[in-house]
Amino acid sequence: MSFSTLGLSDEIVRAVTERGYTVPTPIQAQAIPAVLSGGDLLAGAQTGTGKTAGFTLPILHRLSDPSVKGPSSGRPPIRALILVPTRELAAQVEESVREYGKYLKLNSMSMIGGVNINPQITKLRSRVDILVATPGRLLDHVQQKTVDLTHIEILVLDEADRMLDMGFIRDIRKVLALLPRRRQNLLFSATFSDEIKALADGLLDKPAMIEVARRNATADNVAHKVYPVDRDKKRPLLAHLIRQHNWSQVLVFMRTKHGANQLAEYLTKGDIPSLAIHGNKSQSARTRALSEFKDGSLRVLVATDIAARGIDIADLPHVVNFELPNVPEDYVHRIGRTGRAGASGEAVSLVCVDELKLLADIERLLKRELPEEVVAGFEPDRNAKPEPIQNGRGSMAGRGGQSRGRSSQGTAKPKSPAGGNSAGRPAAARRPTGRHH
Fold first, then answer.
1. 34 closest CA partner among 9, 70, 59, 14
2. pTM flag (> 0.90)
3. Pairing state of beta strands 318-321 and 250-254?
4. What DSSP designation does 219 have?
5. 156 Cβ neighbours under 8 A, 6+ residues apart
6. What average pLDDT does this structure show over 133-137?
7. Would 4-211 and 222-429 be classified into the same CATH topology?
8. Spatial separation of the C-alpha atoms in residues 265 and 6, rounded to whole Å
9. Which of 25, 219, 373, 426 is disulfide-compatible with 50, CB 3.0–4.6 A?
10. pLDDT at residue 435 greater than cutoff 60
11. Which is more confidently placed, 129 or 23?
12. By the 8 A CB rule, do 219 and 48 touch?
């Protein structure tokens, strides 16, 4: 199968070929014909599956169709709206629109917060066919009456699960109320929670359904490794691993912005060039960090979960969970940035006694036990007691304010042979640590 056999125009196929793509990914092979048909679509696809081209290519084809006539007078209206959760993802999607549509007479723009609104207002006075926007900044423009959404023909909600996680549901509903009732709706989500199903039920009309890869699955070509370590030894262990294995392009995940800043400073002082990327950074700082990371001049990028959405690097070799995520599905999101498009990747997790319950939750989700290795000189303390985990909003993780690393009574469970506390871990996960794999 090739892109030309999917029904795309010669101009689009030419642009895709010039970017080095010849064979559609599974999500593209299914989504492109579905979008070209004009119907609604509900697609389950994680990052790294090629989903962006899965909707941008057919949108470009539909909007460039000469048989579809727009308004006969006045400035051409915005015809497609792509809503995304983060600034980085908006930049990435809009870049794809421009690259794939470079032989078409269509214009696009990204609309994001964190930057001056005036250049965006100026751009909106010229022709914009495809608008890629984050919900907050789009509603800023709506309030200032600088954007007209009354002629939208195609709406895309990309990474809808993350938008709901970030609390954008009210903003999304406000945007939907401004759109014409007759339009094509495309919803892409890595997971299908009850909230996503409810959103889809209210938004989509008899949608085609596509789900590529097993739900909450991880790529087969990603090697997982857990390093048990005391919480206060995590920083020196990470520096040791980076130096010992000569890792380059390491994406490290933290729970908090403050923690990300501190880790980046620590690594940089140890002659490992690092920068943090999170919501408190200016857009220019985030863009610079991402650019340096992509071109290889920056060795380590330390990110929070939300800021990392939209980081798309073709051959990212290493993802490190400096802290395990509070929600096991986020482990899948994080490590989905490595092992893409057939390349191999490595997902490393530094796990202290506080996080053993989180690790057990992840293993239950993946239906597999993750291999462990204790590094000489960084052996965890057998008698360490778990402490409550703080999440990114300063409240305790877990249910009812309980630390997910403790038993419900807060008492220590029997220790595993090589250190660490096995509190809360299922039978399958209680095994001797320190095996070398």
1. 59
2. no
3. parallel
4. -
5. 55, 59, 80, 81, 82, 83, 186, 187, 188
6. 93
7. yes
8. 49
9. 25
10. no
11. 129
12. yes
